[in-house]
Design brief:
The chain is α/β, with parallel strands linked by helices. The protein contains 17 helices and ten strands. The strands form two sheets. A six-stranded mixed beta sheet has the order 6-7-8-3-9-10. Its main location: membrane.
């Protein structure tokens, strides 16, 4: 779970989590204080002829009010953090799936993507909203009670502390037994079955339900021990009977948060399983845990490209036939000709998405099919305005994280300023739409109150459902190009594949985009697939696809 949560905190920051933990900690402490106040109140109420302890009751009510306010404030914070957790992790999975070569998106990857269903969303959202609160209370509330009870009776405090230490040790032991050996998911289990026939699944040494029952019994034993000590002290000369009863009540209340936390054992194990699936999809693993990616070659030290006798046949039909050429490192090559599919196929062969029927595609002397998918993800940037995720929200995130050291390069500052303007305009538009929707909703409610059921239906049809807003205007094509190019520049790739086959020629129509493209491709190997009839931009080589062959010629300067 740790690498996945670390990825989430790296993207979203720690401020929201820190604020939530602070509210939960204060709530747990006030709960412990309220439990401790039960002792003087119970003792006075059970003592014959004693006055009603209104002062203690007033303090108890005040502490309860503070606890209620903290709980009220922390609930939406937990829900928002849970929604943010789901959004960030699902977006990270989608972005990585977009970057990985097709050969890495096999049945196993599809299986894990399918596992992120509605149940997984509920589990992830429940972590900060419903699991974190009992976990914090199970530690902070008993510690608060133990600290206060030390001033009431040190023997009772030591008994409660011993029970807390025993429960902590048992919880660590059960956690180790539950997670000692990781349970493989469906995709991993199938792979192991094919590789090692007769292999058995190696789950944890305990089912989650068994661990939950064991911990519950330990909590009961600790509570019984504390009650027994209080009863023994009250039966002797150590405590009065009324104070003994009050301390018995306190002992039971002290272990209540632990009981609530124990009931979440299965939920925590389910969350761990979901996090493990997401970790495999993101390529992150627990330290010392098994790696899911197959071994593969690292990116070579040089970037020259060689197509050596590459042929590709689909159902007996030759799509490419004995294609051979060499492209030097750090050059920009334009892919022209018809049809578009052949040029796109050459790009897929280059990135390892498609394996040739015969021949070999090498980068720096290494077969691209031998490169690990994670290596291809890091070193190859695919640039296209049609790529998913090119939204105003993604533009805002890029503006927040774009390295300042790259901002002064040619064309970059202008692209950042234009994206910033588009994001600001979009935010202003959303605010206006929200205000317009609220106004329409108010007018509709007033019309419903005045004009009856018939007018209510007419108003509903005219104004639409409450809270509904018009569809957001997407980024313009030029801004999508800017965002795609800036994302690629930020990732500092070794190889850039630009797909400009759809729409108008972006670089011929906008000199600023052409300047940004030149900045991205400087000192990098770049493939540019232009649209049919588009002007060939400045470069070093031109690959022209004709039928099943490819010809290479030197680019002519404009």
């Amino acid at each position: 779970m740790r690498p996945v949560l670390a990825h989430f905190l790296q993207v979203s920051g720690r401020r929201a989590l820190t604020s939530l933990c602070l509210f939960l900690l204060l709530g747990a402490i006030t709960q412990g204080i309220a439990f401790a106040l039960v002792v003087p109140i119970t003792e006075d109420l059970l003592t014959p002829d004693a006055a009603v302890p209104w002062t203690w009751i007033a303090v108890f009510a005040a502490v309860g009010l503070v606890h209620a306010v903290l709980h009220y404030r922390s609930v939406p914070m937990g829900n928002d953090l849970g929604a943010d957790l789901v959004t960030v992790l699902h977006r990270a999975v989608a972005e990585r799936a977009e970057k990985l070569p097709n050969r890495a998106l096999g049945a196993g990857y599809s299986d894990r993507l399918a596992a992120l269903d509605g149940t997984a969303v509920v589990v992830l959202m429940g972590l900060p909203a419903h699991v974190l609160r009992p976990a914090v209370a199970a530690v902070a509330t008993p510690l608060t009670v133990i600290l206060i009870s030390a001033f009431l009776d040190l023997r009772v405090a030591l008994t409660l502390a011993a029970g807390l230490v025993l429960l902590a040790l048992c919880a660590l032991l059960v956690a180790r037994l539950l997670a000692r050996r990781e349970e493989p998911d469906g995709a991993e289990w199938l792979r192991r079955t094919y590789e090692r026939p007769g292999a058995q699944p190696s789950g944890g040494l305990l089912p989650a339900a068994t661990g939950e029952v064991l911990l519950w019994r330990v909590v009961e034993l600790a509570a019984c021990a504390a009650v027994g000590v209080c009863a023994a002290l009250a039966s002797g000369d150590g405590l009065s009977a009324t104070k003994g009863v009050a301390l018995v009540v306190l002992s039971v209340l002290t272990y209540r948060p632990m009981m609530e936390a124990v009931l979440l054992t299965s939920t925590i194990m389910n969350a761990r399983g979901v996090m493990a699936t997401i970790g495999k999809l993101l390529g992150t693993q627990e330290p010392g845990g098994p790696r899911d990616d197959r071994p593969g070659a690292d990116w070579p030290g040089r970037g020259d490209i060689v197509f050596d006798g590459v042929s590709l046949h689909v159902e007996g039909t030759a799509v490419l036939d004995e294609v051979s050429f060499t492209i030097a490192e750090g050059t920009t090559t334009a892919l022209v000709g018809t049809p578009d599919g052949t040029r796109l196929l050459l790009g897929d062969l280059l990135t390892g998405d498609v394996a040739p029927t015969s021949g070999e595609v090498r980068v720096g002397g290494v077969d691209v099919g031998a490169l690990a998918p994670s290596v291809v993800e890091r070193h190859v940037a695919r640039v296209s305005p049609a790529a998913p995720g090119l939204t105003h929200e993604e533009a805002a995130r890029l503006l927040d994280s774009f390295p300042e050291r790259l901002a002064d390069r040619p064309g970059v500052r202008d692209a950042l300023d234009r994206l910033r303007a588009a994001v600001a305009e979009h935010a202003e538009q959303k605010q206006t739409e929200r205000e317009h929707t609220e106004q329409k909703h108010t007018e509709r409610v007033q019309a419903e109150q005045k004009q009856g059921e018939q007018k209510q239906a007419e108003a509903s049809e005219e104004c639409g459902p409450a809270g509904e807003s018009p569809a957001a205007v997407p980024l313009s094509e030029q801004d999508r190009w800017r965002l795609a190019l800036l994302r690629a520049l930020r990732s500092d790739p070794s190889l850039v594949v630009v797909d400009a086959t759809a729409g108008v020629d972006p670089f011929g129509a906008d000199p600023r985009l052409a300047e940004l493209f030149t900045t991205l491709t400087r000192d990098r190997t770049c493939w540019l697939m232009t649209g049919i009839g588009a002007e060939v931009p400045p470069g070093d080589l031109v690959l022209e696809a004709r039928g099943t062959g490819v010809t290479v010629r030197t680019a002519v300067p404009n």
